[in-house]
C-alpha cells in the first residue's frame, strides 16, 4: 500500500487535535506537514497547539508551519473557545520544538508543484479557515494540478450554523478564501455540520480514550471535556461532535461516508456572509462540482478513531516493557 501524501491545514482547536493525532497514527497517510492558521484561536496559539500535538504524538519531526494571522478580506472572527488559547500545559505538555521557517501558503504551493512534477498528487485536509490554501492556489497554475483533493470541514445546509444562524465558523472566518477554493477547479469534498453532527463523542468513547490510548488519548479526552461540546437541545442525545476528525477519516476510509455531487457556493458579504449553498440537481457543465458528505457510519467512524488512537497506548506499553 502506498500512503497518501497529505498536508493538514488546521486551526487547533480541540477536534483539530484529534484529527492530527488520527492522521499521525494512520499508515494510509504520509503527513508532510501541519499548517496552523488563525481560526479557533489566534495564529500564535494555533501554532503552539499544533507543536504540542505533534510532540504528544511522539512525532516532533513533523514540520509545523505558521499560517495566516488574518482572513483575506473579511474582519477577523475567532472561535467561541478563543479564550482557551494555547492548550493548558497540565493537559497537553509543553514542548521546546519550534515551527519551521517560511509561510504555510508557500509551503503548500511548493509541495503541490513538486507533486505535479513527480507525477503524483497531494491531498489537503482542511479543518480551519481556507486562507492559506486560497493563497497557495494563486501563486502558480501548477499548484492546482498537484492537488488531488481538498477534504474540508466546513459549511452548513439544513443544519443551523454554529457561529451565526446561517454560517458555520470555518466558512464565516474567511468566506472569500472559501469562494476562491470552491472556484479553483480542484476537487473538493466538504464535511458540513449536517454530517458532523451525526457522530457524537459520548462518555464511553471518552473512557476508551483514557483507558486505551495512552497519554495522547488522556489529553484528548480531557480537552473534549474541557471544551464541553454537549448540547442535548440541539443534537437530541448526549455527546458532542468531532467535526474536524471527519475529513481525516475520509482520506483513510472513504467508504465511511455517503457523498453527493453538487455545485457549491458561499456568500461573501452582508448578514449571510459565510453561508454555504449547494445545487444538487444542476448539470455539471463547466462549473466545478464538489462532493458533499450527507451521511456517516457513526459506529464505524468511532471504531476507526479509537482503534487508531490505541496505537499510542500500545507504543507506551511497549516502551515500558523495554525499559523494564
Quick gist of this model?
Helices cover 41% and strands 20% of the residues. With 324 residues, the chain is α/β, with parallel strands linked by helices.
CATH superfamily: Ribonucleoside hydrolase-like
Report the top-level CATH class: Alpha Beta
How are the strands of the biggest sheet laid out side by side? 4-3-2-1-5-6-7-12-10-11
List SSEs in N-to-C order. EHEHEEHEHHEHHEHEHHHEHEEEH
Total number of β-strand segments?
12
| Unreliable residue stretches | none
Largest sheet: 10 strands, mixed
What is the CA-atom radius of gyration, in angstroms? 18 Å
GO molecular function: purine nucleosidase activity
Domain Inosine/uridine-preferring nucleoside hydrolase: 6-302
InterPro entries: Inosine/uridine_hydrolase_dom, IUNH, Ribo_hydro-like
Keywords: Glycosidase, Hydrolase
Describe the structure.
By secondary structure, the chain is of the alpha/beta class. It has a single domain, classed as Ribonucleoside hydrolase-like (Inosine-uridine Nucleoside N-ribohydrolase, Chain A). The chain has 13 helices and twelve strands. The protein has a ten-stranded mixed beta sheet with strand order 4-3-2-1-5-6-7-12-10-11, with helices on both faces. It has a two-stranded antiparallel ribbon with strand order 8-9. Helix 1 (14-24) links the parallel strand 1 (4-10) and strand 2 (29-36). Helix 1 packs parallel to helix 2 and helix 3 packs across helix 4. The longest helix is centred in the C-terminal third of the chain and has 26 residues, at 298-323. The chain is globular. It starts with a strand and ends with a helix. The model has no long low-confidence stretch (mean pLDDT 93).
